[in-house]
Amino acid sequence: MKNLFKFLLLITVLYSCNEESLYIDKDNYIKFSSYDEFLNTLNEFRQYNHDEKKEWLEKKQMNSWGLNAMEVYKNLNIESLNSLEEIKDYVSQNSNYLELIKDENGEFTLETILRDRPESYLVNDDHILLIKDRAVKIFNSGYASTDINNLHLLKEVKEETFGKNQPPEINFSIKQTRSEILNNNNRDLAYNCGQEMTDREDNGKNRTYIRIEVTAKRSYNDTPWLISSEWLIRPYKKTLGVWYYASRTITGKLRARLDFIDDGTFLPFGTWNNTEFFDCHINPGNVNSYYGSAGLISWIHPTNPLNASPSFHLGAIDFTGDTPDTAPAIISCNPQMIISGLINNCL
């Protein structure tokens, strides 16, 4: 119950923000007055379809990387083409937005560069947004941030060098798999599902893909970390050996447990807290993707707030994403550890 109260308190803070305080600066960076305002806007965007996002961004007169990428993506009418080479040529001409990823079967998937990041609509062509006096760059591998005075350093960080031999002025938040966490000798290993899991289900020319991850973000070194879970359900169709985004009626369910080292708020500091559950029933209708989030936990080290970061992972997952043309995609990890009768506390 304490965790539920803390979650509701955070949601109240998030939705009390004044959206009009954000603005677009002269270099086309969207700037938020606070981290709460950024999260508020991001959660709002998760509920929008492409046209609603476009209308919002045009009102702000923002040159959004994510909007541009999806417009470029939609302009490639794959079904009207005759060969894979035509698709490759188009992707090559728009390589700042699109990429073709080859899988183990020799097939390709057409993706935007920031395919798994719902924040992509809120960044400019540098993949950067501003939060007060911090600059944040979005990557598929995680996030990088620095003081706004070091913006020039952040611009030089690339996906292929993310987190490797970077200037000390830049902070990185990097996703870890279960095996990586186990190799780091993290505690609470018996019920550790890692920080990211994916699954897909194919049927002929149709695919359903799902992903769930848990992340920790903060805007300043002396402010709390916010630990939350995010997930994606996305349908695909295949033409000319290339999988690409398709609109389908999406349904699903998600039950999960978020585990983290308590900061002393609910349990003695250093104790694993295994009581943060969430339960989500998913029915967004006919769309080409669905993003969701849950489990916002505020965390700050009681004696070392500047440098210490939280330990966390998904302790249990029962996640299903379904579309009419495939069997459900399923992620199941320690489902027996999920309690029944959960409260629907998803954004």
TrEMBL record:
Database matches in PROSITE patterns: PROKAR_LIPOPROTEIN (PS51257)
Domain of life: Bacteria
Name of the featured protein: DUF4848 domain-containing protein
Organism (species): Marivirga lumbricoides
Lineage summary: Bacteria, Pseudomonadati, Bacteroidota, Cytophagia, Cytophagales
